[in-house]
Amino acid sequence: QVQLVESGGGLVQAGGSLRLSCAASGRTFSSYVMGWFRQAPGKERESVAQISRGGGDTYYTDSVKGRFTISKDNAKKTVYLQMNSLKPEDTAVYYCAAKVANPDDWDYWGQGTQVTVSS
User: Rounded CA gap, 28 and 74, in Å?
Assistant: First the structure.
């Protein structure tokens, strides 16, 4: 069983920055593919960013490219999402997720952290 705990959300003005953290349990964190997702009220959950096991490959949805950066510290068993130049449309609950055993699906999810960007 893998537990994921997000932190770092909050209220920020447009143009500001936040850094989300997701701490993971488990003995083989370095073998997990990690991702950040978000869900705004009334909208479907969307993938925001993903990072490979070793951290060398990343993916971003178009709306956050150039503003968000995902990183992975295998020694600390933590994945980060640095969010800069935040916009009101970034307001959502942000979730981290891990692919542990199934390469085609996300096996574990955190409880989510609220990010609110005021205009």
Answer: 9
Distance CA 14, CA 106 (A): 31
Q: Which amino acid is at 56?
A: G
First and final CA of the chain: distance in angstroms?
40
Residue type, 7: S
Looking up tokens 């503003």 gives 67
Buried b / exposed e over 34-68, threshold 16 CB at 10 Å, is: bbbbbeeeeeeeeebbbbebeeeeeebeeebeeeb
Q: Which of 58, 56, 57, 13 is nearest to 36 (CA)?
A: 58
Q: What percentage of residues in the chain have a pLDDT greater than 70?
A: 100
Q: Percent of the chain beyond pLDDT 90?
A: 89
For residue 33, give both structure tokens: 């593919």
- How far apart are the C-alpha atoms of 54 and 31, rounded to whole Å? 8
